[in-house]
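Quick look at the format.
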Amino acid sequence: MSLPVPLRLLGRLILALLAVVGLAGLFLALVVLTDGARSGLAAWLTALAAGIIAALWRGRGRTRRGRLWPFVPVVAAAALTASVCVSTVPTTRQYPPDLPFVATKRWSLSTGSRVAVYHYPPAAGTPRRPTPLVYLHGGPVRSVSVLDHRFLRLLAGQGYDVYAYEHPGGGRSDLLSMEQYTISRSVRDLAAFIDRLHKGPADVLGFSSGAIVLTRALAAPDTAARVHRAIIAEPGPMDGPTALTSGQPGRPSARGLAPAPTGARATRVPRYAVAFGLIQLGLLPPGTGLITQAEGVNAFKAADLGSDTASAYCARDAGRIPTEDTAENFSFNAAASLQIQQTIKDSPSIAPELSRSRTPAMLMIAECSSQTRQWQTGILAADPAVERTQYMPGVGHHMWNGLDDNNERAAAVITAFFQSEPSPLPDYPTRTGISAFLRDRR
């Protein structure tokens, strides 16, 4: 008994759809197996050949029309997966245009890195601070945000001679080969940058991933000798054992509460959705042959960060999260960032070296921090030279965010430490009070 024509057609459509899905899955598996060789073309041609062979086998002994039908899903799958092999952005590095309010200088460091540098000299009429201040931004491997630039101008307005540079591969700095992106290279770049200033030891303010670089610099005696005083603000994990530490973040952030970011997203384009997704899952290495490093930087947009931006603000600020950057200035090297993070996860404990640090340091912790508290308190426990800890109420991970008086409060805490003056906030948590701090889930 034969099935009615409509049911036979439905069955064929279902089989065709399953064939398309199967060929697409084969293509993705081959992308992983071939490391995305030749922009995914090697995987695409292999999957296409497999589809053609399967279609010929299925069509054997059929009428001419029957022999053609198995090729329909092959053509559909080939068209669908071909979009993963076609670049939609330039494959050579496109640098953001210079900012209108500060000159972009490019320095070649003794490490071989060529970095974009921003200098905010002390404002006229203000007492000049004797020690230069170097800012290590978060990311890692992204541009210094416009929001951060505003904060640096505020510090310059208080007499600081402020320098910031974008890590190699991010912002307006030149790319490195993928294997050169390591946390050790970042520490060496900091030492080389301070040497390039020719002003002796510098005060250093490290934020987020920049705080990790600074922490590891304090554990390296040769680099630590170049640091006059250090502020470790909202650090991530300092080494492999710390990265494995389980714990809790601070008070609730705006993640899941703030409106979804708007604007263009690379992850809405099949090529970059596949590339970034497989890299994030660890199925492709950051240096994959599917997309070039430069292409990935050119493609990635601020909206691709998703809820990461919201996680840097308190839940109470979910409806008023500021725009951190402009589309023209934003630049993020996702592959290099993941590569550096992996080298941190793979590194042994630096606690023994950090325990010998003698560089005066301060730790800054946000009330609504998205960072694991044990990452922060681990530094306090390991580094005997941390002289004070400043728990910043009412702010999230991005403490100087332009809301209310948050910038001014952060600047007051920073100035008090760098000038060896009494702090406007209590020293909290203390080294002996870490356990109580963690129990209170502050």
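Next, a different chain entirely:
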Amino acid sequence: MTTSVSPTRLILMGAATTLAGIGLGRFAYAAQLPGLIEAGWLSARDAGFVGATNLLGYLVGAVLASRLARRLGPGAVIKLSTLLIAVSFLASMWQGPVWWFSLWRFVAGVTGALLMVVAPSLIASQLPESKRKRGTAWIFTGVGTGVLISATLVPLLMQQGPELTWLGLGLIALLPVALVWRPWPGLPQAPQQGQQQARVGLVLAAIYLAYLLDAVGFVPHTVFWVDYLERQRGFSTWAAAIQWGLVALGAISGPFLVGAIARHAGWHRTLFTALALKGTAVLLPMLIPGTLVVSLSSFTVGALIPGMVATTMGRIGELVPAHVHATAWGRATALFAVGQAAAAYLMAPIYASAEHSSLIFIIGGTALLCAATLTLATPLFAKHKPLTEAS
């Protein structure tokens, strides 16, 4: 069934899914951790384990996303996933055993991945060509909004206790449910036999690998940055919180900046530029001292958290037909999940060694610059240009 929805409403619905699935479902828990540990709800070790189940759920959801969308329909998957995000917060109001929190963080991970794979690719396929680059990027403004909520509202709620914090997040997560609970378009139809398609296997594989390397570079700032600034760089708690606020401001503005660049330069050049800038921003504070450099790093990496998602998805959209975009994007998301989980586990013991803590930023930045080099070389992998490529 095909449902006609205006482009503006589609973009708003897409932003609601990324707010629920990633902005709240992923980042709000990280902001709660200190308060949950201090209140005795979780030990430091249990909190890490609960967080790991979210990463595992994200991987599972990315693998299953396109199959569930075909079986249940994309609208049903999006609505149910958004609702379950809110339920996962509300269910966590009970101070149960570790397995209880792990269960709901797993649910949030699965549903977050389903929303990240199904909704953006479906919306991009429905947008008119003139609005596709701008709209594809703007869908991910929900990520930055969620980061801003985690940086501001969660600490305030935590002063009232974990129960009210879970309740507040659950009520906030119901707002995206109201926005997505309306008819959705159907999946794009496969083209008729005989329609020419470009051979882009090697290029697509290179984009997948670059996105996996981006996941490695994603971990240092999103997991260790605030603690690193406090314990290794001598920032006060308030000053470190300001840096996380800059990450949030960057995450809100990132999709707009990426969309503007893509409209003028195309997704291929935008992807290379984003990876090179992000790699430089991760490395720069390790090479040059000063609060200004740290602040620039916070804002730039924050902007390219949703910016890299939008750019990678847009680039994949140039390389594959619309009816297989969700499958290709799901594979990229699954590889990202593998990369971030592996990087987090490998970087944790390195970071625990105080004299080597900055090494994780060097690893992350180097991985991003390698990804930028790989994307720059992708035209060499293609025997001919994809029909839709804007290079």
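The chain has a mean pLDDT of 84.

See the schema section for token definitions.
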